[in-house]
Design brief:
616 residues, mainly alpha, elongated
Length: 616
């Protein structure tokens, strides 16, 4: 599929530049508008840029280049890597507003925001690194690059950002303290949440329970061309060949050890309902050669040599021809034959030709002699070939291979091995069709190869790999969150909004008719690692405020959570503009997942925490 690979590479270059540019522009705008300070923007984005450069250098050394899947790490890292700066700068500005100087403010910010940043960063990086167990190298590489990039961004923020705000040489970048409006909307939002915690809890859990059955019925999209950008010439040709011709691009092949085995494979495949066409070098070898040669030998004695050439007498020849056709016409007329009109037309044409010959034109005489010579020559060649065949021997594969085009011969056999190609009778865009086609192939031979086999193994290994990655990421998230809080209540509180959000996304994909594919299936283990961050930061602030001041939690940490989640959604949202439909669907599903985590962490979690405080 060279054309498809070339088109995919070109679209990848465009998508990489587009998604990265959109993510950077969107995040810088949101960052600047939220903090209303160019200084904060420069300080906050600098560690992210360092991590991007470092990760690209790591990618060059470790993997050499990016591909369709690994290129998604750029927009992902931009959306996630800036979250650490948002939480640290938000807490730092809060301390400045309370009257602390810059060193004290950054120390307090690191002390109080650091644990949540560390837990959130490690869970997010762990979710990506869990993809390493996937058997598809592209997904494993994407997990490694994103995980390494997040770790670089995390530790770069914890080490570089504090140094920037306390450095005397960079004092011009140090932001000024700014008083925040005490009647800001987060305060009113907190009042609205704490006024109806039971209703919010009931609605959130009810929606999650209703989404689960819808999610169970969702399926995988097995149609490979539908992952590619729309309108590509290679994709249109792929579909046209598969749907309108017998030369499907989804061909499979069996390897035979001998011509006899190749013939058996071909004969068996032709009888299968899932196979439309079979191609093998044995189809060029005549069958039942012994019987045919015996019949040809019986004709050898009957083949007479062609008569010697003689001069052409057109008048005599035309007279004989006209008489014969007139006799046929008479007999047909007498018998009232249905062929009478055709014979009448033939007789008319013969009379017209007779008139031309009677005219004595020299050119007519010359052309007639030339035609007679050619006909006699062809007749002699045919009789000679027939005599040679009647005394010949069986046709061998070597003779066939010598007469076939070199490319076709190399395609059908090599080093005493013989390829037998099976073209499917239906499209392989549905799992049932792929399974039926492969079952038939495996009933003939245990080692088929080709697109259908590769597509099956890629899809099944991808699905199994991400199921394992999801479970591994879930285990890692739970252990890291518990290791952070070391208590069951805050651990469950941090994880609860994530559980509800996963159910929302699971059913939401089905309602939006978004099927699973190798691009978006990666989203679920990532949402685990990314979505838990918001809950961890909220619960950390809740613990630090004494489990009572939920309004202050929403007012300060809620703002940072909203900002960090919004930047993550911008990064993932940029992926949805990619021309590659698998990459775009990854962006959409991640956008849904992170958005759901934002709602559950800033609405449902504060309501639950307020309920816990009231019960206590």
């Amino acid at each position: 599929f060279p054309a498809l690979v070339a088109d995919e590479a070109r679209s990848l270059g465009r998508d990489l530049a587009l998604t990265t540019g959109l993510a950077l522009i969107g995040i810088c705008l949101l960052f600047g508008l939220a903090f209303r300070s160019v200084r904060v923007l420069v300080i906050g984005v600098f560690p992210l840029l360092l991590s991007l450069v470092g990760t690209l250098a790591f990618a060059r050394v470790a993997f050499g280049s990016l591909n369709l899947i690994t290129s998604a790490f750029m927009a992902t890292l931009i959306g996630l890597g800036v979250d650490f700066s948002i939480h640290l700068m938000s807490r730092y500005l809060e301390a400045l507003e309370e009257g602390r100087d810059s060193p004290e403010a950054i120390e307090e910010a690191v002390m109080y925001s650091g644990p949540g940043m560390l837990t959130g960063g490690l869970t997010s990086a762990g979710a990506f690194l869990a993809l390493m167990i996937n058997d598809v190298p592209a997904f494993a590489e994407m997990g490694v690059l994103s995980g390494v990039g997040l770790l670089l961004s995390l530790f770069g923020t914890l080490l570089v950002l504090p140094a920037m705000v306390v450095s005397e040489r960079l004092a011009f970048l140090r932001p000024n303290p700014r008083k925040r409006d005490a009647k800001a909307s987060p305060g009113r939002w907190a009042g609205w949440v704490t006024a109806r915690p039971g209703l919010l809890t009931l609605v959130g859990v009810a929606v999650a329970l209703a989404m689960i059955p819808a999610g169970i019925g969702n399926s995988y999209n097995w149609n490979y061309p539908e992952y590619m950008p729309e309108g590509l010439p290679s994709v249109e040709t792929w579909n046209r060949l598969s749907q309108d011709t017998e030369f499907s691009t989804e061909v499979a092949a069996l390897t035979a050890e001998s011509p006899e085995q190749a013939e058996v494979f071909a004969d068996t495949l032709k009888k299968l309902p899932t196979v439309r066409r079979v191609e093998s070098i044995t189809q060029f070898v005549p069958r039942d050669q012994e019987e045919k040669l015996a019949r040809l030998r019986s004709l050898a004695t009957r083949i007479e040599p062609p008569p010697e050439p003689r001069s052409v007498d057109l008048e005599e020849g035309m007279e004989t021809l006209r008489d014969a056709i007139e006799d046929l016409h008479f007999e047909a007329k007498r018998a009232e034959s249905e062929r009478l009109p055709a014979l009448k037309a033939l007789l008319d044409e013969t009379k017209r030709l007779d008139q031309i010959v009677d005219s004595g034109d020299a050119e007519v005489q010359r052309r007639a002699r030339t035609l007679d010579t050619e006909i006699r020559s062809l007749r002699g060649d045919a009789l000679g070939a027939l005599r040679r065949v009647s005394n010949g021997s069986e046709v061998t594969l070597e003779e066939i291979g010598a007469k076939l085009p070199r490319e076709l011969n190399q395609r059908l056999r090599s080093d005493e091995h013989y390829a037998v190609y099976a073209y499917p009778s239906m499209g392989l865009g549905e799992e049932a069709n792929v399974v039926a086609f492969l079952d038939d192939l495996y009933s003939v031979d245990s080692t088929p190869v080709g697109f259908a086999v590769q597509h099956w193994h890629n899809m099944t290994s991808t699905i199994e790999g991400f199921e394992e990655a999801f479970l591994l990421a879930l285990l890692a998230v739970c252990l890291l969150v518990f290791a952070d809080f070391r208590q069951l209540t805050p651990t469950l509180a941090s994880l609860s909004p994530l559980a509800v959000a996963i159910a929302w996304v699971w059913g939401g994909m089905a309602l939006l008719e978004i099927k699973y594919n190798p691009g978006n299936i990666i989203a679920f283990p990532l949402v685990l690692g990314i979505g838990v961050d918001a809950g961890v930061h909220i619960v950390h602030r809740w613990e630090q405020e004494g489990r009572g001041r939920i309004t202050e939690v929403i007012r300060h940490t809620g703002f940072a959570v909203f900002m960090s989640t919004a930047t993550t959604m911008i990064g993932f949202g940029a992926l949805s503009f990619a021309s590659n439909r698998a990459l775009a669907s990854l962006g959409v599903v991640l956008l849904l997942g992170v958005g759901a985590c934002l709602v559950t962490a800033t609405v449902l979690l504060p309501a639950w925490l307020h309920t816990l405080k009231r019960k206590s």
